[in-house]
What does this fold into?
Amino acid sequence: MPATSNRRILLKNRPAGDPRPSDFEISEAPIPRPSDGEILCRTLWLSLDPYMRGRMKDVKSYAAPVEIGGVMVGGTVSEVVESNHPGFKAGDFVLGYGGWQTHHVARAAAKPGPFGPLKLDPKAAPISTALGVLGMPGMTAYVGLLDIGQPKPGETVVVSAAAGAVGSAVGQLARIKGARAIGVAGSPEKCDYVVKELGFDACVSYRSPDLGGALKEACPKGIDVYFDNVGGDVLNAVMPQLNPFARIPLCGHIAQYSATELPPGPNLGVVVGMRVKIQGFIVSDHADRLGDFLREASAWVRDGRLKYHEDVADGLENAPQAFIGLLRGKNLGKQLVRVAPDPTR
It folds into this structure.
């Protein structure tokens, strides 16, 4: 039976510290109608990503914060149910940015961007991968590691949050490029996963009582590239072990997203002495690399060199709890919410 309303999850409060279920609110609204040049989309898959925590804060950043009472932002894979655009028809599957809701209207641009609305071919790959290994997380790993980290054969690449959607891809890309891949993750199960399933050379737990010593043992020749997803104690442990001319792509700082005050920073004297390159980046600034990424990453997925895992929560109403778990490191691989049954599966 067709839906009669648009179920949405709104931001109710700006969290102080870790988000709680009470910071979100479920709301029903009329299903929007598409105008000329627009398409009405029914959400099948919702992506949950760490950057969303930053959008819950009322602070200046690269993107506007979610307003109190506004729909939480997020990438989506949807089915077109009504189209007023000649390039799309009912039944098409699209990547977009519909947010935490069951329906949304998208305006199709003349030139699709890296995050939609972009038509998907369900025969090429499972459509959910457009939110993970063949989507924003995969492209983040690709651009950050290959364009900024620039690993060379034989070098040592360390990546934090190694069992997450971005980190798991980073380590595999490092191996594809002939480098050693060392992961930093939480539980022994996650460390086993990135080594035994994804082919990392080693993985250490950030909960180790001597993280610096564990990294030194895993990286006896030092660290040439550190792909940083978390900041905090892991970055502090990495800094003394950097080789001359090491590169650090700064992707995120999950360890500080819910902090109420900033922790002490690392010793940046190492950066001068070792001539280290540190560069923060936002993947949306690299839209020109989309074609290269999709061509290469799709081939690596097909031939089994780039593997992925999807951690799926069922039902839009479970998005807040899944998001809170993501920030606490409870997910393995890409965290998704199945909002509606995927007709391609």
